[in-house]
Amino acid sequence: MINIVLFGKPGAGKGTQAEFLKEKYNLTHLSTGDIFRYNIKNETELGQLAKTYMDKGDLVPDEVTIQMLQSEVDKNPHSAGFLFDGFPRTIAQAEALDAFLETKNQSITATVALEADDEILVKRLLERGKTSGRPDDQDEEKIRNRYEEYNQKTAPLTDYYKAQDKFYAVDGIGTIEEVTARLSKVINNL
Description:
Blueprint: E1 2-8, H1 14-25, E2 28-31, H2 32-41, H3 45-55, H4 62-74, E3 81-85, H5 91-103, E4 110-115, H6 118-132, H7 140-154, H8 157-162, E5 167-171, H9 176-188
Parallel strand pairs: 1-3, 1-4, 2-3, 4-5
Helix pairs in contact: 1-9, 2-3, 2-4, 4-5, 6-7
């Protein structure tokens, strides 16, 4: 079983690459954004709980997010592995994910970071914002704020996973095919 954490700054290509990786390696793609939207739309108990925080402008607590992920993992007992996209974002979340996977006799196999220059990513997101309809992709100040938050909260995960010899950086700039080939090379050598 392969369990991969895919991370990178907004616009680095995580969603695009996740689609290729899940097909190629028969992984179950767990995007926290998609899981949140599903639970809120379907008014599940966890979705309603998450919405109470979001409606106040607060971050959803880790324990709620982890419960949603646990539910998704439990729904896929025959999966060949999981591709975690958007989670973990902090060391506390990484520790919670490790503890949960341990209860399933599993662990994170690798963490792969798509790396790219901020200026290139800002241009990418502003371009995406023209068609995505996402307001957070249309405002350069908001984009840069998301990068600052990433640098403060998510970047420390690099050291966390390096200490476990599970961190791999991949150049996220190039054609979709070139980036997919780089990712595949890392995964094939796990």
